[in-house]
Specification:
The chain has about 80 residues and is mainly β. The chain has one domain: Sandwich (ATP Synthase, domain 1). It has strands spanning about 1-5, 10-25, 25-30, 40, 45-50, 55-70, 70-80.
Amino acid sequence: MYLEILTPESKIYSGEITLVSLPGTLGSFEILNNHAPIISTLGAGSIKVIDTIGQTHHFPIKRGVVECLDNQIHLLVTID
């Protein structure tokens, strides 16, 4: 899967991943390979990303929006 995380100021992450865990406004959820298409709002919390070599990355956010379609995940977020 390909993930891109954008803020109003810059791109803070882009690359191939195996998992992303997100702080949804109605509860946390994960996106894995071949996830159904989704658009969701995000609340304050931390985005957890596991890349294809097994490294874990964390990105604290205030709020945002995620779109997942055909293993392409785009996050538009504001950060602390």
